[in-house]
Write a structure and sequence with these properties.
With about 270 residues, this protein is α+β, with helices and mostly antiparallel strands. Helices cover about 15% and strands about 55% of the residues. The two termini are about 20 Å apart.
C-alpha cells in the first residue's frame, strides 16, 4: 500500500496515530484499515489548518510562545509547510495460519498367552509292585518213627491119624475074593452064617485127616526208622518294590487369546497453509 506521510511535528502525531491505527488495523480487514487511514489523514489536515489560523492571532498567545523564552531574545514565527514523501509499506492482509491433518491410530490383531493356572507341585503316590515267587516250605520236620514188627506166622498142612486100622464083619451079599478092596476095606475072609447070609471080614485101614495150622515164624519186635522232613513248594505274591511318594511339578497352564491392540497411536501433522 502506498500513502503520503507528513514530515513535521504534526506529522509526528500523525505517524504515532498511524502506528497505533496500524496495530489496530492488523486485526481487521484491509478495507477497514484503508478507511481508518483516510480518516486520520483528514484529521491531520484539519489540525494543520487550525495551527495556521492560530498563527495570525495575538503575539502573547501561549500556543506560539516558547515556554522557556529569555529576556533580550527575539523570536520569529515562521510557518514551515509540511513535507511529504511517498513510501511503500507492506501491511497484513491475512494472518498466517496452519493446516492440521489428523492421522488416525492404526490397530492390529495379536495373539497373547495369558496365565490360566499357575504352576504348582503335588504329591504323587507310587503304588507298590508285586511279583510271584516259588518257595519251599517245611510241612513236617524230620523225625524218628518207632514201628512194631508183629509176630510172623505161617500156615502148615499136617496129616494126622484120626482112627487106627481095625477089622469088622460086614455083610457082603456074596463071596468076595480075599484081598479085594470092598466094603470100605480089604477083604480078609468070607463066611456064611446059619441063616445063609454071606459075611465078609473087612480090614478097615487107619483113618487120617489133613489139617492146617498156623505156626510162629518170628517173634514180635520194635524197629526205629528215620522219617525225613516233608517239604512243599508253594507260590506266593510278594512285594517287589514298596509303595512310595514323589513330588511332581505341574506346569503353569496358559490360554491363547486374540485381541486388537494399537499399532501406531493417533497423531497430527501441521502444515503451513499456503
Amino acid at each position: 500500500m502506498i500513502k503520503t506521510i507528513l514530515l513535521s511535528s504534526a506529522a509526528a502525531v500523525a505517524l504515532s496515530a498511524c502506528a497505533m491505527n496500524d496495530q489496530q488495523a492488523a486485526g481487521g480487514d484491509l478495507q477497514a484499515q484503508l478507511n481508518a487511514a483516510n480518516e486520520e489523514n483528514s484529521s491531520l489536515r484539519s489540525e494543520v489548518a487550525s495551527l495556521k489560523t492560530s498563527g495570525n492571532g495575538s503575539v502573547g498567545s501561549d500556543a506560539l510562545v516558547p515556554a522557556n523564552a529569555k529576556p533580550g531574545e527575539f523570536y520569529a514565527r515562521v510557518t514551515q509547510p509540511a513535507q511529504f514523501k511517498t513510501v511503500s509499506e507492506q501491511i497484513l492482509a491475512s494472518e498466517a495460519s496452519e493446516k492440521v491433518r489428523v492421522i488416525p491410530a492404526t490397530y492390529k490383531t495379536v495373539q497373547e498367552k495369558i496365565l490360566a493356572e499357575e504352576a504348582y507341585t503335588k504329591l504323587e503316590i507310587i503304588p507298590a509292585t508285586y511279583k510271584t515267587v516259588e518257595e519251599r516250605i517245611l510241612v513236617k520236620p524230620a523225625g524218628k518213627r518207632v514201628t512194631t514188627v508183629p509176630t510172623k506166622y505161617k500156615t502148615v498142612t499136617e496129616r494126622i491119624k484120626v482112627r487106627d486100622a481095625y477089622t469088622a464083619w460086614k455083610p457082603g451079599g456074596k463071596v468076595i475074593a480075599v484081598g479085594q478092596n470092598a466094603l470100605g476095606g480089604t477083604i480078609l475072609q468070607n463066611r456064611t452064617s446059619t441063616t445063609g447070609e454071606v459075611m465078609c471080614l473087612v480090614e478097615i485101614p487107619a483113618e487120617y485127616r489133613t489139617v492146617s495150622k498156623r505156626v510162629q515164624v518170628s517173634a514180635a519186635q520194635t524197629r526205629e526208622t528215620e522219617v525225613p522232613a516233608v517239604y512243599k513248594t508253594v507260590k506266593k505274591r510278594v512285594v517287589a518294590t514298596p509303595a512310595s511318594t514323589r513330588e511332581v511339578t505341574v506346569p503353569a497352564h496358559y490360554h491363547t487369546i486374540t485381541k486388537t491392540v494399537e499399532a501406531t497411536p493417533a497423531s497430527a501433522q501441521t502444515h503451513p497453509r499456503a
